Amino acid sequence: MDFLVEVLGDALEALFGFGSELRQVLGLTLVVSLLATVFGVVVGVPLGTWVALRRTRVRTAWLVAVNIGMGVPPVLAGLALLLVLWDTGPLGGLGLLFTPAAMVAAQTMLAIPIAAGVTAGAIKGLPPAASEQLAALALSGWERGRVMLVEVWPGVVAAVAAAFGRVVSEVGAVLVVGGNIVGETRVLTTAIVQETRQANFGDALALGLLLIILAAAVNGFLTWMQLRSGRHE
C-alpha cells in the first residue's frame, strides 16, 4: 500500500510541477493526434459514405477491406510505413523517418478505416424509408452522399471520436516510425512506456493521467456536439 501511495504522490508532484519536457510531450501528442484524426476523417468519412451507398459486389469487397483495416495491429502498420520510409525504401529520399510527420502518417493509416467503418455503419443504420426517399430524388452521387452525412451527423461525430480515440492511445506505430526521441518524437504513450521500463512509475502515472485528461477533453467536446445536434433535430 505504501508503494502505491508513494507512486501517486510522485505522479501528483510531477503534474503540479508541469515542467517544460512534460509540456513538450503533451503538445506534440496533441498536434500529432489531432492532425492524424483530421486527415483520417477527411479520407475515411467520404470513403465510408461511398461504401455505404454502393449497390454492387464492389461494396462487399470494400467493407471487408475496411473491417480488416479496423483490426490491423498498430505495430504492423508502423512496420509497413517504416519499410516504405527506410533509407533504401520507395520514399526513403524524403527523410521523414523518425519525425513527427511519419508519426502523423502512421496514425492516419489507423484512423482512416475507423472513420470509414463508423460512418458506413451510421448510414446503413438509416431507416429503409429514408434510403428509398433519397433514391427517388434525382441527385448526383456527391449530393446523395452530402445529404446522407447531414442525416447521420451524430454518427459522423462518433466517427471522429472513434478515430481520435484510436490514435491518441496508440503506441506501437508511433514508436516504430518515431523512435521515441526526447524533444523530437516522444509523445505521451511512448513516454509512458519509457518511464515504466526505467521503473519511474510516478512519472509514468503522471503521463497516463495527462493522457486521460486529454482524451476526456476532446471526447467530451465531441459528445457535446452529438447531444447538441440531437436537440436541434
In this structure, how is the largest beta sheet organized?
none
CATH superfamily: MetI-like
CATH architecture: Orthogonal Bundle
Number of helical segments? 11
What is the CATH T-level topology?
Answer: MetI-like fold
Proportion of residues in β-strands: under 5%
Query: Could you list the spans in which at least 5 consecutive residues all have pLDDT below 50?
Result: none
Q: Multimeric state of these chains?
A: single chain
How far from one another are the termini?
A: 51 Å
Q: Kindly provide the name of the CATH class.
A: Mainly Alpha
Q: What is the count of structural domains?
A: 1
Strand/helix succession: HHHHHHHHHHH
Rounded mean pLDDT is: 86
Helix content: over 70%
Features:
about 230 residues; single chain; mainly alpha; 11 helices; about 80% helix; MetI-like fold; globular
Detailed description of the structure:
80% of the residues lie in helices and 0% in strands. Helix 2 packs parallel to helix 5. It has one domain: MetI-like fold (Orthogonal Bundle), CATH 1.10.3720.10. With 233 residues, the chain is mostly helical. The model has no long low-confidence stretch (mean pLDDT 86).
Question: How would you concisely characterize the structure shown here?
Answer:
This protein is an all-alpha fold and 233 residues long. It has helices spanning 2-17, 20-53, 57-70, 74-85, 100-124, 128-136, 141-151, 153-168, 172-178, 188-197, 201-232. The mean pLDDT is 86.
Topology of helices and strands:
Elements: H1 2-17, H2 20-53, H3 57-70, H4 74-85, H5 100-124, H6 128-136, H7 141-151, H8 153-168, H9 172-178, H10 188-197, H11 201-232
